[in-house]
Design a protein that fits this description.
The chain has helices at residues 2-16, 21-30, 36-57, 66-82, 87-100, 104-129, 138-163, 165-179, 182-197, 205-230, 239-252, 266-275, 280-308, 313-319. The protein is mainly α. The chain has one domain (2-12, 36-319). The longest helix is centred in the last third of the chain and has 29 residues, at 280-308. 37% of the residues are buried.
Length: 325
């Protein structure tokens, strides 16, 4: 938590240094907020696409209607926005278990697959946007290279696990028999089996293609929201520039931060816009409103669904103490 506060504070300092707040306020006062409405509608369309992707990833375990999975997805977004450490992913898997009986290990495995494909698409967006950058910062180039290596290695590990589950299980049995008490070993194997079930979609080329293409659609829709919100302010950049911004800010939100990605979303987005010649006050105003439009509607809807499902904050605390079953 302290590390997250430190990172968020540092990012906000970078984003706001040398800025006249009066200029930001002027931009906020003169913005045409009607453009946020279609942006929010497109964003919820992207959330629906995420829900369908999750439905597809779980189809080999259990066929669950998309409308049933919508509630866990929205509650998971809310959890990510108000709790640290992306705790909403655990909350999402828990609500799915509560509604459908799918064990948490399986649900979390599909969430891991989602996040890795999201990261891969973000890197593609960054690579699509880089040719449009007037002067490519060395730090941005190095970050893209490092992130590419990390995501590709993680995806490779998951593919190997999905294709050779028996060998992975045998390796875990070997390690637990040697180093863990019997009860702990049985528990680890149970979690391993449920996690393996969530990787079943990666065993076919069709499954991988469907998940990858859906991920591209999801993030293109979110970039369309960036485009709509841009029209509320007095600047214009290319769609590829917004793809670059989308990719960079979402890769940056993997860093530790306060709940809601304060700072880690804002600072990279502002810096990308400044690279494209957007005035600092305009870049800050736009990024603030974009962040709020991404955060507020889905959080309020998630809270409403949480109340509707009869969940309490105490129950969420207990979720953190479960062990994947």
């Amino acid at each position: 938590m302290w590390l997250g506060l430190l990172v968020s504070g540092l990012c906000l300092f970078i984003a706001l240094r040398g800025l006249r707040l009066a200029d930001v306020w002027m931009q906020l006062k003169t913005a045409s907020y009607i453009w946020i409405v279609p942006g929010i509608l497109v964003y919820f369309l992207a959330v629906w696409a995420r829900t369908w992707r999750w439905h597809y990833l779980l189809r080999t375990t259990k066929i669950i209607p998309v409308r049933v999975m919508w509630t866990p997805v929205v509650i998971g977004y809310m959890g990510n926005n108000i709790f640290p450490f992306r705790a909403g992913e655990v909350l999402r898997a828990y609500v799915l278990k509560r509604k459908t009986g799918v064990v948490m290990g399986t649900g979390l495995a599909t969430v891991v697959v989602e996040r890795l494909f999201d990261g891969l698409v973000m890197l593609i967006f960054v690579l699509c946007g880089l040719p449009w950058v007037p002067n490519l910062p060395i730090l941005l180039k190095q970050t893209v290279i490092l992130a590419s290596v990390v995501f590709l290695i993680a995806l490779l590990v998951l593919f190997i696990w999905a294709i050779n589950p028996e060998r992975v299980r045998a390796l875990i049995v070997l390690v637990t028999d040697r180093f863990a008490p019997p009860e702990v070993g049985r528990r680890i194997l149970a979690i391993t089996d449920s996690f393996t079930a969530g990787l079943s979609s990666l065993r076919s080329a069709t499954g991988v293609t469907m998940v990858f293409m859906t991920s591209i659609v999801i993030w293109l829709l979110e970039t369309v929201k960036y485009w709509f919100v841009m029209h509320a302010f007095s600047f214009t950049v290319t769609f590829f520039a917004l793809m670059l911004m989308n990719g960079v800010v979402n890769l940056a939100t993997t860093l530790p931060s306060t709940p809601g990605y304060v700072g880690t979303f804002d600072a990279p987005g502002i810096e990308i816009l400044k690279i494209f010649g957007v005035a600092p006050a305009v870049a800050v105003s736009y990024t603030m409103i974009l962040h709020a439009a991404l955060w507020l509607p889905i959080t309020l809807l998630g809270l409403w669904y949480m109340v509707k499902e009869g969940m309490s904050w105490q129950e969420f605390k207990q979720v953190a103490e479960t062990k994947g079953q």
